[in-house]
């Protein structure tokens, strides 16, 4: 009798029943769903099978298979964060420990691979005025200057990932029939549709790309044709021009995080297309972290309101414009409301 036949005799249920037993042992519904999704995705990649179709032969695995799977996830077009890749792999590793305990012909140590570094704060902070300067400076490039500038503007305005921007097509942008802006539709992580509006001005900047002679050779419908190498060299050059130090760790993903400095946490979550607000909070806190404004310092900071009366109009405006971008945006909206109310009173 073969080893496989002996093992089969040890199991009352099928492989998929045991997998579902493993998933069901977790109390958290969120954990159960997350593990099931991770395990299903793995076996679809590994054996091109749903878990309901798996046999004992299908679950045999080598260490090199897990290394290949990790590489597959790292290079995936969805652009998974390292922490996400680690979570997907951890679910599979945990399942194989369960398999081994239940005397399947596998060794869980074969799935042990180096975990990826936690990159939740890997992308250093980049601020709006710096991103805007970059878009202006790169216009001077003789080769693809307009395309590079529009690419940067789209990056910090929409917060789309680099791979998403590279795959963006003209057909993904439609005018909003009731307003003077355009809607960009993409498919984000988890297959979720994500729609972000852009201004008419930005759309017109995109259209300018079509006017260049080199662009006429492209017939794939894509807006941008910048390679990873071109983007990397472009960003390195711009950082040098702006004097951005290496220790700030500004990478292309930093453009995506510019928006985290605007609006509320909920608004940032929607804009960044995060499923979990705790993910948004990591970026939001990282971008907005300023210990000089901490409660422990402000509670001791007793300054009379009359100090504002000692400033000129220009001094007040200068102070306001130096505040956090989200604060400035809110002040401008409030100011617009005041102006609108004044005009309404005059008209009445």
Biggest sheet features = 3 strands, antiparallel
How many beta-strand elements?
3
Order of helices and strands: HHHHHHHHEEEHHHHHHHH
Radius of gyration: 26 Å
Strand order of the largest sheet: 1-2-3
Structural class: mainly alpha
Spans with pLDDT under 50 lasting ≥5 residues? 1-11, 288-300
In CATH terms, the superfamily of the largest domain is Intergrase catalytic core
Rounded to the nearest angstrom, the distance between the terminal CA atoms is 96 Å
CATH topology of the largest domain: hpI Integrase, Chain A
Known CATH architecture of the largest domain:
Orthogonal Bundle
> Class of the largest domain, according to the CATH hierarchy?
Mainly Alpha
Q: How large is the share of residues in beta strands?
A: under 5%
Task: Give an overview of the whole structure.
The chain is mainly alpha-helical and 348 residues long. The chain has 3 domains: 109 residues, no CATH class; 161 residues, Orthogonal Bundle (hpI Integrase, Chain A), CATH 1.10.443.10; 48 residues. Strands 1-2-3 form a 3-stranded antiparallel beta sheet. The N terminus is likely disordered.
Keyword list:
hpI Integrase, Chain A; 348 residues; mainly alpha; 3 domains; disordered N terminus
């Amino acid at each position: 009798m073969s080893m496989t036949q002996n093992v089969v005799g040890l199991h009352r249920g099928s492989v998929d029943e045991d997998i579902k037993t493993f998933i069901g042992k977790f109390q958290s519904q969120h954990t159960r769903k997350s593990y099931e999704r991770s395990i299903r995705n793995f076996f679809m990649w590994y054996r091109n099978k749903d878990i309901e179709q798996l046999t004992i032969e299908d679950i045999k695995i080598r260490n090199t298979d897990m290394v290949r799977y990790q590489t597959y996830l790292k290079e995936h077009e969805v652009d998974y964060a390292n922490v996400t890749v680690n979570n997907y792999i951890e679910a599979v590793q945990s399942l194989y420990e369960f398999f081994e305990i239940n005397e399947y012909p596998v060794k869980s140590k074969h799935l042990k691979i180096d975990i990826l570094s936690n990159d939740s704060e890997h992308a250093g902070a980049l601020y709006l005025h710096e991103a805007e300067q970059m878009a202006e400076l790169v216009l001077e490039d003789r080769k693809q200057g307009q395309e590079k500038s529009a690419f940067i503007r789209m990056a910090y305005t929409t917060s789309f990932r680099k791979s998403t921007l590279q795959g963006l097509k003209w057909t993904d942008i439609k005018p909003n029939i009731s307003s003077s802006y355009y809607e960009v539709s993409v498919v984000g992580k988890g297959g979720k549709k994500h729609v972000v509006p852009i201004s008419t001005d930005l759309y017109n900047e995109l259209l300018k790309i079509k006017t260049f002679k080199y662009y006429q050779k492209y017939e794939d419908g894509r807006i941008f044709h910048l390679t990873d190498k071109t983007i990397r060299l472009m960003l390195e050059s711009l950082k040098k021009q702006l004097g951005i130090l290496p220790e700030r760790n500004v990478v292309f993903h930093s453009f995506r995080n510019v928006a985290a400095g605007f609006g509320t946490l909920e608004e940032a979550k929607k804009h960044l297309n995060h499923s979990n607000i705790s993910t948004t909070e990591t970026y939001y806190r990282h971008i907005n972290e300023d210990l000089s404004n901490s409660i422990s310092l402000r509670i001791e900071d007793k300054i009379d309101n009359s100090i504002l009366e000692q400033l000129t109009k220009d001094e007040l405006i200068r102070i306001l414009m130096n505040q956090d971008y989200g604060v400035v945006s809110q002040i401008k909206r409030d100011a617009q409301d005041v102006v609108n109310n004044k005009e309404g009173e005059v008209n009445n």
